[in-house]
User: Which sequence fits this backbone?
């Protein structure tokens, strides 16, 4: 909202500088988004002078040497000037030595190309004024020589652009801001004194102009008043009124419309004026629109309405969208002689909904949406009538109509000095608190001393109708603090007890996972949670996809919740490749959304991708990452989440390359883990060069352990191990895990109770000559150890012999010798 | 005998330095000090030496034996050293680049978040977390947001379809809709509903606004909020916290100021400005950094706390904005592109 300082001075005698006023408004709680001054700035040593002569500079084609008479300010000066229009006879503004122009530009006597110059003649730009940059500011009114810039140029104004918080609808107008500033600077506030105060008993009765007002939706329109002014003459507003409106960015239309706008900007009460003769049936009806009812609004657009929208209608049709915008053919026009002035209050939600539906926000709807004080409405109407009579002539005619607005306002809050002090945490004297209330027109109707252990007084504070936001004692704490000044909150140290609680397990997991991944040379990424359907389709099943869709996406590429972090990481990989930035390892932690039994689960997740070297050369080659690299990291991440993952098994899942990726999950408990090669066709379709290995873990947050589980030390043998190698020929399709499990079981049985089998590890996988077709050889190293002695070859051999018989028993496997 | 000893020693001194392999050394050692060795043979002559000469001869033999052992040890040490150096290739060029990727980097948002959490943990805050999909109650109603508040509009907030079912996000009322949380204040509500004060939490997390993406707006971004509820928590305590946070982050002489403002869930409410002296690329004296206030009694009522007994404060800020101010980043979209040239700059 734009506010004019000159206008504010109508109500409060502000003497502070615009900067001080802007600061006051800031600390009263309204953001000052801009300050813009018109008229002459206050500049010392800038005076009116007349150019007496102009000669070409001897050493510069584009410069002139002028003699300039500044009269009592110093007589005739010689000044070098670069402007084209420095012709003799013009009166101009001269900055004399000592002047400091905007931009901190200090004027000194100097030599310009060898020619002495005793000042500078100024362009509007150099004075901080709007206007042509090219030439000197000429003063055709020929003010007296030597007078200051302030006297020479018409008085300026300062316009503040304010952001009014939604709790303060009373400040959507000049009077509201003036009231706040009067409180801040402790200055008196003068309200406009209306001459017309609603009495139409002596006025001519003209039911032929307006016969009746009917409000059919009192819920949505708690107050409606209509006054008739007859015999007006519509024309341009007086200059002062036009200037005021222009200063705050409104275009003057005609005297009547300008008055309604002026009063709205003064009091915050929107008003509307009808041409009385254009109201069909001389009636006003406030009612819901009829379904499909049409109205051409003032902006020339035809609006189709429905019953959710409240309208002002005459006997035949809707003429105004209530609180939003008037119709094109019922308003005051140049030929209007009799008008009906509407002053109404509409329910905020009703106006807001209508404004939203129509996509139409106006100064009026904006104020109604935030709330208009019904108890201030009559005075606004009277004020407008005063100004209409003043600017358009005519006379008030009866009858006047008023519907609603008969519930008197009354609100009191009881608050104690102790209550306020306890909330603030520092002392403000009771007298200061009371003064703050009264400065804000919060009348203290009663003050009594409180009894022990309380110390200060208790006040009963009467809340004016325009301060509907003040309803509880805590609201008055804010008023005291605002006027005391938030900059005066005394410093203090933080009183901190020991840590009350452990960090959330999710936070700890993310931290551990990020540390792990960064420690393994990954760049941590952050991608959007909302993904395009086409990306998600690669990772989610067709049944899953619709469950992840937003009801109201904003843009096409952010329509669904992500079910995988890998999609975003591939996107980041692609971006880096496209920009020619070599990068191999990317990782992310964050939320993903997975489906289980028709429900979506919000899961904690970590994921990573490793681009196999995509062509960039190196003086020393490393073997690129493979399935076993990414499985290693995925299982490690699962371990950080406290999950014990068994084997990952091949599975056909969207996004992964069949036969080159594996998954494990516990659907019931709610965890999922996977690793392997990203589907090659997918990688290619994304425009990523080279193959990509990836891995992820996702789990329900509630699975994360609140604390580390209890661990117990297990003793181990200090005697040497006995090793034996075992190779088995098995069908190609048999997974190593299955063979390994069988070997371990047999080895454990063979070792029996007399010593221990510690494990079997695969050290070779062989395919090729010497083996039957379709078979492979898996070679294991087995480790045996005695608890309390060194094992003899004999006992180990006996056990090894036995397990070589046990392992293949009942299978097609053969021990390879 | 002395001459014989000298001869053997001279022979050994000539022969042993030329020995390069361990088996050769073993053979040479046997030739001198083995059972049939030359030196052993000389020692056996001791028996033939007259009794009165024996002490002198013994001394000579021991001396010679010691010198022979030194020669053998030297040869062994030389051979062992040669064996080790045989395990090495040519000397490395330490100025060549490593072919390995990395080092890994933390995202600037993580760095800023962890730094803030570290600062807050020191004054008793623990880090809380909660779901990003929320219900209307936890995101709005419990925070004193009226049903027709613009923030709840479908124009500004992402909603899930009415039939969406989230298995692990609880609703207050089965009829309310799921949405993507617009602030992390919902974590405060869930935390307060879980237990009694005192509560001192910081909740960093991802939030969503239905907004056009440009240099300063993003459909999702990150917030960090603090909540402290206890007896006798005051405005002055809140100011002290903000002063502490930014002094710890930017240096002791960092100043903050409060401007009165309006938020539905705090009363009184303030916007927090930071003196921009320490910030790159900021050319005004104060810059807005977040919002805060004293928890509104209606929020306490919503979570079942007695507003007469408990008071509290809340503070919230955007992490992207903080990171942008700290690092001088001028476009929020950099955080979400993950260009490695960006990521490498902060870790």
Assistant:
């Amino acid at each position: 909202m734009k506010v004019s300082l000159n206008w504010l001075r109508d109500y409060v005698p502000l003497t502070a500088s615009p900067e001080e006023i802007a600061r006051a408004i800031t600390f009263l709680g309204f953001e000052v988004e801009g300050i813009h001054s018109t008229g002459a700035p206050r500049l010392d040593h800038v005076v009116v002078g007349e150019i007496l002569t102009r000669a070409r500079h001897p050493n510069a084609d584009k410069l002139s040497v002028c003699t300039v008479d500044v009269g009592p300010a110093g007589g005739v000066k010689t000044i070098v000037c670069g402007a084209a229009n420095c012709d003799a006879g013009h009166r101009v503004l001269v900055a004399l030595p000592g002047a400091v122009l905007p931009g901190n530009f200090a004027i000194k006597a100097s030599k310009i190309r060898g020619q002495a110059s005793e000042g500078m003649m100024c362009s509007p730009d150099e004075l901080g004024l709007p206007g042509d940059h090219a030439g000197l500011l000429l003063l055709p009114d020929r003010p007296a020589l030597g007078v200051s810039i302030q006297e020479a140029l018409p008085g300026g104004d300062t316009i503040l652009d304010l952001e009014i918080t939604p709790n303060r609808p009373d400040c959507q107008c000049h009077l509201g801001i003036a009231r706040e500033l009067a409180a801040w600077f402790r200055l008196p506030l003068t309200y406009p004194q209306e001459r017309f105060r609603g009495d139409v008993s002596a006025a001519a009765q003209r039911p032929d102009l307006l016969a009746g007002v009917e409000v059919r939706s009192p819920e949505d329109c708690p107050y409606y008043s209509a006054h008739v002014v007859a015999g007006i003459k519509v024309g341009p507003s007086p200059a002062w009124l036009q200037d005021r409106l222009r200063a705050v960015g409104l275009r003057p239309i005609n005297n009547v419309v300008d008055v309604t706008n002026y009063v709205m900007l003064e009091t915050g009460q929107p008003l509307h004026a009808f041409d009385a003769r254009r109201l069909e049936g001389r009636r006003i009806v406030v009612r819901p629109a009829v379904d499909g009812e049409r109205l051409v609004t003032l902006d020339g657009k035809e609006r189709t309405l429905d019953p959710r929208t409240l309208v002002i209608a005459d006997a035949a049709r809707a003429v105004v969208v209530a609180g939003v915008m008037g119709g094109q053919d019922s308003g005051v026009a140049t030929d209007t002689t009799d008008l009906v002035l509407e002053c109404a209050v509409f329910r905020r939600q009703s106006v807001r909904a209508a404004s939203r539906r129509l996509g139409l926000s106006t100064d009026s709807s904006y104020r109604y949406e935030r709330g208009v004080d019904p108890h201030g409405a009559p005075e606004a109407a009277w004020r407008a009538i005063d100004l209409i009579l003043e600017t358009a002539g005519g006379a008030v005619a009866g009858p006047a109509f008023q519907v609603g607005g008969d519930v008197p306002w009354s609100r009191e809050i009881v608050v104690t000095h102790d209550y306020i002090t306890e909330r603030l945490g520092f002392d403000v004297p009771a007298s200061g608190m009371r003064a703050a209330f009264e400065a804000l027109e919060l009348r203290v109707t009663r003050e009594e001393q409180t009894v022990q252990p309380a110390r200060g007084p208790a006040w009963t504070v009467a809340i004016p109708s325009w301060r509907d936001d003040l309803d509880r004692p805590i609201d008055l704490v804010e008023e005291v603090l605002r006027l005391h000044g938030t900059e005066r909150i005394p410093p203090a140290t933080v009183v901190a007890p020991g840590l009350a609680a452990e960090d959330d397990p999710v936070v700890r997991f993310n931290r551990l996972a990020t540390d792990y991944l960064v420690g393994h040379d990954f760049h941590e990424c952050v991608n959007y949670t909302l993904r395009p359907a086409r990306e998600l389709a690669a990772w989610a099943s067709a049944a899953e996809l619709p469950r992840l869709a937003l009801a109201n996406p904003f843009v096409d590429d952010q329509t669904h919740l992500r079910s995988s972090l890998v999609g975003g990481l591939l996107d980041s990989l692609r971006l880096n490749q496209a920009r020619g930035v070599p990068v191999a390892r990317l990782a992310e932690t964050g939320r993903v959304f997975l489906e289980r039994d028709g429900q979506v689960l919000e899961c904690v997740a970590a994921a990573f991708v490793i681009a196999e070297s995509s062509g960039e050369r190196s003086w020393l080659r490393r073997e690129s990452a493979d399935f076993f690299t990414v499985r290693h990291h995925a299982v490690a991440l699962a371990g950080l989440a406290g999950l014990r993952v068994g084997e990952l098994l091949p599975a056909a899942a969207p996004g992964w390359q069949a036969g080159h990726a594996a998954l494990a999950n516990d659907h019931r408990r709610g965890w999922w883990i996977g690793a392997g090669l990203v589907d090659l066709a997918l990688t290619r379709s994304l425009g990523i060069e080279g193959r990509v290995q990836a891995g992820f873990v996702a789990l329900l947050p509630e699975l994360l352990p609140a604390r580390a589980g209890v661990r117990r030390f297990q003793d181990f043998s200090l005697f040497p191990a006995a090793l034996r190698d075992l190779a088995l020929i098995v069908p190609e399709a048999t997974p190593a895990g299955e063979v390994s499990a069988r070997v371990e079981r047999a080895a454990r049985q063979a070792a029996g109770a007399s010593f221990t089998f510690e494990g079997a590890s695969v050290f070779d996988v062989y395919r090729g000559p010497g083996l039957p077709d379709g078979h492979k050889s898996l070679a294991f190293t087995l480790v045996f150890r005695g608890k309390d002695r060194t094992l003899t070859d004999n006992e180990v051999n006996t056990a090894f012999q036995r397990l070589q018989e046990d392992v293949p028993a009942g299978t097609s496997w053969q021990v390879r010798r | 005998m002395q001459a014989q000893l000298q001869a053997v020693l001279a022979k050994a001194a000539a022969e042993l330095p030329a020995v390069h392999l361990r088996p050769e050394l073993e053979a040479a050692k046997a030739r001198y000090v083995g059972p049939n060795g030359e030196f052993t043979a000389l020692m056996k002559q001791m028996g033939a030496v007259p009794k009165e000469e024996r002490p002198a001869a013994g001394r000579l033999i021991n001396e010679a034996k010691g010198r022979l052992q030194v020669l053998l040890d030297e040869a062994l040490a030389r051979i062992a050293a040669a064996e080790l150096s045989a395990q090495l290739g040519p000397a490395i060029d330490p100025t060549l680049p490593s072919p390995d990727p990395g080092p890994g980097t933390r995202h600037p948002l993580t760095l800023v978040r962890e730094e803030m959490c570290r600062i807050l943990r020191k004054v008793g805050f623990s880090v809380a977390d909660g779901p990003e999909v929320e219900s209307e109650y936890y995101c709005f109603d419990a925070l004193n947001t009226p049903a027709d508040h613009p923030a709840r509009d479908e124009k500004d907030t992402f909603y899930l379809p009415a039939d969406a079912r989230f298995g692990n996000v609880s609703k207050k009322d089965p009829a309310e809709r799921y949405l993507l949380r617009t602030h992390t204040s919902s974590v405060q509500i869930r935390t307060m509903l879980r237990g009694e004060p005192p509560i001192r939490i910081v909740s960093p997390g991802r939030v969503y606004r239905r907004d056009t993406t440009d240099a300063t707006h993003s459909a999702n971004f990150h917030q960090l909020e603090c909540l402290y509820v206890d007896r006798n928590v005051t405005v002055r305590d809140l100011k002290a916290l903000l002063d502490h946070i930014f002094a710890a982050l930017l240096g002791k002489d960092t100043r903050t100021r409060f401007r009165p403002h309006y938020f539905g869930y705090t009363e009184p409410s303030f916007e927090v400005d930071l003196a921009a002296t320490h910030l790159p690329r900021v050319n005004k004296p104060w810059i807005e950094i977040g919002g805060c206030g004293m928890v509104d009694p209606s929020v306490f009522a919503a979570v079942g706390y007695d507003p007469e007994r408990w008071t509290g404060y809340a503070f919230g800020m955007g992490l992207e904005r903080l990171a942008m101010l700290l690092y001088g980043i001028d476009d929020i979209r950099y955080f979400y592109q993950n260009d490695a040239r960006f990521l490498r700059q902060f870790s």
User: Anything to note?
Assistant: Chain A has six domains: 2-39+158-185, 46-155, 204-404, 414-488, 505-703, 721-816. The longest strand of chain A covers residues 599-611. Chain A has 19 helices and 40 strands.
